[in-house]
Amino acid sequence: MASRTFDSLSDFMTAESLESGVFRVNDNGLPIDASLEKHVGRPLLVFLHGAKTRKVDLPWFVGAGMTAEREVSRLSISDPSLYISEELTLAWYAGNANQGDISPKLASLIAKCAELIRAERIILIGGSGGGFASLSIGAHIEGSIALVWNPQTHVRKYYKRFVDDYEKVAWKQNGKTLNDLKRLDLTTIYSQPLKNTVIYLQSATDEFHIQNHLQPFKQKLHSENRCYFYTETWGEGHIPPPKNQLATWISFSLAIDLDNQILWQNLETSSRSAGVSQPTKTAMSN
Predict the structure, then answer these.
(1) pTM confidence score
(2) Contacts by residues 59-66 (CB-CB < 8 Å, ≥ 24 positions apart)
(3) Mind listing the pLDDT tens digit for each residue in 24-46?
(4) What CATH number is given to the structural domain containing 196?
């Protein structure tokens, strides 16, 4: 299926060009599969998926519908941990016994893609488990934007059966438990000053995520981190924003001048007229 295969991440990092299509990077016995739609010099939108159903075939690439009418590049990455077993439906792009922590690896891969296609901006996009991944990987990419909705911010505070499945399937080979993996707690990571930007969208009726993920994240967030929170009622529970609202937020992420606070305030005014709520908290930019 892959139009180009790299023997290792090191091999990929020496590439001098990259074309549109599916490519594979082999990494310690597991493939990192990605699909690239290239538009040289345009922003790079990186899509990361959440939990899959048993009907989903790997590799799983999401996001094509969100970029169909935009002059942007799209990179969709399939979580390599899901190849370990069909029993595993969610792994947060957080790694496994074979590959270790893949967040910095994926950050390097994304940054290399951006370099090869001369992308003017990197925007990581995902909800729920994909939101966790966008926050986690974005923390490694200076100047990036993570656009997330209803994300988990601490894997061990998600529903126990998903956490237990991930621990059993992905880490049993080396005897580690998730308690040994500090990177699964983004509240701690974002309690330190970082150089990325976060746009955090939250369903107002998703009480589980508000109490266990949003509130602890906001409470520990470092005051210098640029992170904006928006809460809206989209329906009942853990559901994503409507497609038209998500499209608006993508447009905001593409347009915003991260160093211009006046422009950001204008975007807030536009968001109100578009039916998007005001921020519940804003951390000042670096």
Answers:
(1) 0.90
(2) 59/1, 59/22, 59/31, 59/33, 59/35, 61/22, 61/33, 61/34, 61/35, 62/130, 63/125, 64/35, 64/37, 66/125, 66/243, 66/246, 66/247, 66/250
(3) 999 999 999 999 999 999 999 99
(4) 3.40.50.1820
